[in-house]
Amino acid sequence: MSRNTAEDIARDATAAFNSGQPDRARKLCEEGLTHRPGEPMLHHLLAAVLFSKGEVESARAHVEASLARRPDNAAARLLAARIARTAADFDSALSHLDLIIAAAPQREAFLEKARTLDQASLHQTSLREQAREAWRAILKVIPQSQEAAARLGRLAWEDGDHAAALPLLERATEGDTPASTWFDLGLVRQDLRDYAGAATAYRRAVEAKPDFAEAALNLGVVLQESGDIDNAMQAYAQAYRLRPQTFGTIAMALTSAPHGRLWIDEAALRRSLTQ
């Protein structure tokens, strides 16, 4: 029996995508659109497939085509906002999100708006406080939001407010935690001279992301500050293997800190780091 309706095609494409066959899902959507140009469901689904493959501009064209036919589709508009944010078109992303929130406020739209404001504030510092307030509002409504706690903690650290940053980042590490959050917690503890606590956080960052050169480098620094030079050298060696450009920072740390080592020449230190 032929499966010719848009719903059937979308169902088959979704099943293909969910089973790890994005190319088949794409083909099904594209073939469906040759017979049903403008079908919003297929444009929406094709946009999601393309976005997952990093084809941002093509995905954007298809989700906009879907919204042109079905402007009240909140799921398509949320996808459009995410695509626009990825393209660094923050005004467009915020416009989509405000339309969703005005029509029917939903948690995911508020989260996406906070992410968008946060990312946009890197380019437009006047949005920084709006981003902070957005994350605060989310944490108030969703106290268990690790993402909100992590971002607020990072913002507080960037402001030099370590007292505020520490509990937020410790709260953000309760559960499955990304390497970046462990790293930020390490930074705060390091600035507060809690070298043992910082070392624990940096180790967790490296465990979560084994190629995290910055975390390995900072682990070496805090271990050295603690007087544990042998383990510091192991951490430095890991950082150097991951990113040879860290050599200058390692050399400076070793020769300038109270607990360091002297090297006759650069080549000797490089050999030590590769043994």
Automatic annotation (TrEMBL):
Record key words, sorted: Repeat, TPR repeat
Keyword field contains Repeat: yes
Pfam families in UniProt: TPR_16, TPR_19
SUPFAM superfamilies: TPR-like
Mapped TPR repeat ranges: 179-212, 213-246
SMART domains xrefs: TPR (SM00028)
Name recorded for this polypeptide: Tetratricopeptide repeat-containing protein
The species this protein was found in: Bradyrhizobium ottawaense
